[in-house]
Amino acid sequence: MQRYSGFGLLKHSLSYHENWQRVWRNPTPKKKYDIIIVGGGGHGLATAYYLAKEHGITNIAVLEKGHLGGGNACRNTTIVRSNYLWDESAELFEHSLKLWEGLSQELNYNVMFSQRGCYHLCHTLQDMRSNERLANANRLNGIDNEMIDAAQLQREIPLLDCGPNTRYPVLGASVQRRAGNARHDAVAWGYARGADALGVDLIQNCEVIGMVINDGKITGVKTKTHGIISADRVGCVGAGHSGVLAKMAGFELPVVSHPLQALVSEPIKPVLDTVVMSNHVHGYMSQSDKGDLVIGAGIDSYVGYGQRGSYPIIEHTIQAIVEMFPMVSRVRMNRQWGGIVDTTPDASPILSDTPVKNLFFNCGWGTGGFKGTPGSGHLFAATLAEGKAHPIAAPFSMFRFHSGKLIDEHGAAAVAH
Ligand code: FAD
Ligand code: PYC
Asked: Based on the number of CB atoms within 10 Å of its own CB, is 112 exposed (0-12), middle (13-18) or buried (19 or more)?
């Protein structure tokens, strides 16, 4: 089956994914796979890649209802960090950050991972104390994080208003210098290319509309376009639509879907070479390689599946950003968009077996799953290959909501979940 034309010419070019979309031949699904992955976002594609690469399982299909990487993977603001408070999440996100550090080499594809640092601003004494606690907890877990005062912060980020006349003057910040950002679509396409080269079937425009379950065991999925496709195991990685997928399998997940929006300015000359977040005034900003200021805040408070954001949130976001960076008041905004994220009551993901045998779910990453992409794929691949949770994934079982063993990361989630 021909999937590429002119592969040599296209290899490792930054516009590779555009060319690839043009020459892509959607494979016809086989009747039966070892593993089906539902959802061709960053996490689903990474799972497929690591299943093939590290576990030698290549009889896999990724079923994607739209186009690969067209969901949250291509709508997020790409902050990558591992400064989470609790041991379980620190281990999970640090595992992911370590994979990010070698990802361009691993995939032979430039994911433009830039460790430009990430600052969490403190505007009150309580902010200072909780960030100190976070920095200490991180260091005990071997994760870099340090506190700096306002004078040091002003030297490091001249654009930031650290003066005394703002509504909530900045007192200091915690900073993770190994944190940063990456190129969102490159991650999805890098994993897609890698998985495809290892023999995985990536099938676009193939919506899963039902689960085939016999005697409490999954044996396949029903699709809108290709009927029933059978598999020994199924992994659902549907991000904001995970609740819908769970319903098809006859159980409920403790997830709620919300819009999360972001916006970018017109491209301007380089003014900001790091990532700045403020939980207190509630906004964050970085600058992309193209020059756009990349801006966001928290989820819209209503639930829904519309991939766009509502009005008051943009206004609040811009208020916060202009307070931190007054020069932004003179910059034009270019585009605004939304994704749809799935949040859990403890602001931590779910990587888990389910009440249905051989059916696994990877979801609940809420506002923070981009940074988790490599780690999520790596651990979910091990979980699917072995049929039981990888030790780092084990605390993230969906059954923690029965036992009460929650991992409450609301504080370190950094943007409102
Ligand atoms: P997706 O790309 O959404 O993949 C899920 C896929 O499943 C979709 O392609 C969807 O079409 C498919 N699917 C769903 N149902 C079906 C079905 N029935 N059949 C077949 N396919 C199906 N995280 C960070 O760490 N840092 C950030 O700075 C950050 N910023 C964000 C900003 C915004 C505006 C948004 C929206 C999110 C942000 N996130 C961030 C969160 C992050 O984007 C998500 O947590 C992460 O992308 C989710 O994993 P994914 O890439 O696999 O999801
Ligand atoms: O998890 O760091 C994060 C984040 C920033 C913006 C959205 N999510």
From this structure: middle
